[in-house]
Amino acid sequence: MKIGFIGTGIMGKSMAGHLMAAGHTLYIYNRTRSKAEDLLARGAQWFDNPIALAKASEVIITIIGYPKDVEAMYLGESGILQHAPKGCITIDMTTSSPELAKQIANVGLEHGITCLDAPVSGGDIGARDAKLSIMVGGDQKAFDAVLPLFQLMGKNIALLGSAGAGQHAKLCNQIVIASSIMGVCEGLMYAKTAGLDPLAVLEVIGGGAAGSVQLNVQGPRMIKGDFAPGFMLEHFVKDIGLAIAEADRMGLKLPGLTQAKKLYDILMQQGHGRTGYHALFELYLRREVP
Fold first, then answer.
1. Could you confirm whether 170 is annotated as catalytic?
2. Alpha-carbon dihedral 128, 139, 113, 99, rounded to 10 degrees
3. Are 28 and 47 within 8 A, CB to CB?
């Protein structure tokens, strides 16, 4: 397939690389060309703007920053849906708004374009190893057509409903992570304060009922003070903000998520947005948890 790929950041560059390694023709647009240099060196073709890329592509994949970026990329005057050919399938893999995903899908239909929302979970390691979880909303026929592409990027792939369903599922994922990472911080902080070796404690409890990706993968990083981003804190704050907004719209109370947002907002105010989301442990270490 001729695949247009927009967004070659921490995760996108690995995802695009898997598609190209499988033999697909890869067209690239990114706001910062330097982030695409590795892919271009391997044979990807650069486009100076999304209009030209859209016109040349059979499938267009985006994984960009914020809902406002997604809205501009798809619905703006120079957006994808104004210029992609009829029959094109678009796949937005950004974590974004479920309502925006529905709007994009409806506008796409007006142009003869099928739009899927397909956010992912697994971070930089999942993207690198092609083991992402991919949560999809949209048309069954389009899903079936691009499933081989999803299978090049992930292992746990599901169509969960109509447009917006993928985004709702990803917000479920972020809700679970938000409270889980607070639990990891508090457990490790308790071990440290009690005079125990946190790594030794982690090895024991990680094999029991407390075991999870957040404990077993992020826990050791937190103990070592390694807060390099596999997934940036500022994007996680964006995601949990979306989840809170959707919960409010549905009349749903999520106190764990609300508390996590308060703690992450403190880190954002302190300028830690470009670190990994597991840097929440720093707040506990500094005894700055309100």
1. yes
2. -80
3. yes
Structure token digits, residue 87 = 């029959």
Cβ–Cβ < 8 Å for 151, 157: yes
Distance CA 290, CA 266 (A): 10
Identify the CA nearest to 146 among candidates 115, 179, 186, 188.
Answer: 115
Catalytic residue among 170, 253, 261, 262: 170
Phi, psi of 182, rounded to the nearest 5 degrees:
-65, -40
State phi, psi for 52 to the nearest 5 degrees.
-65, -40
Average pLDDT, whole number, for the chain?
96
Distance from the Cα of residue 276 to its chain's centroid: 13
Token pair of 215, please? 């404990």
The label of the residue with tokens 């994009």 reads 104
Q: Measure the N-to-C terminal CA separation of the chain; round to a whole number of Å.
A: 52
* Domains, the chain, ordered by start: 2-162 (3.40.50.720), 168-285 (1.10.1040.10)
Tokens of 59: 């499938």
Q: Report how far residue 151's alpha carbon sits from residue 196's, in angstroms, rounded to the nearest whole number.
A: 43
Q: Write the DSSP assignment of 39-79 as a string of letters.
A: HHHTT-EE-SSHHHHHHH-SEEEE--S-HHHHHHHHHSTTS
Q: Where are the beta strands (DSSP E) in 63-162?
A: 89-92, 114-117, 120-121, 132-136, 154-159
pTM over 0.90: yes
| Helix (H/G/I), strand (E/B), else coil: 89 | strand
- Rounded CA separation 47/84 (Å): 14
Token pair in block for residue 49: 């703007």
Label residue 235 by pLDDT band (50, 70, 90).
very high
How are beta strands 154-159 and 132-136 bridged, if at all? parallel
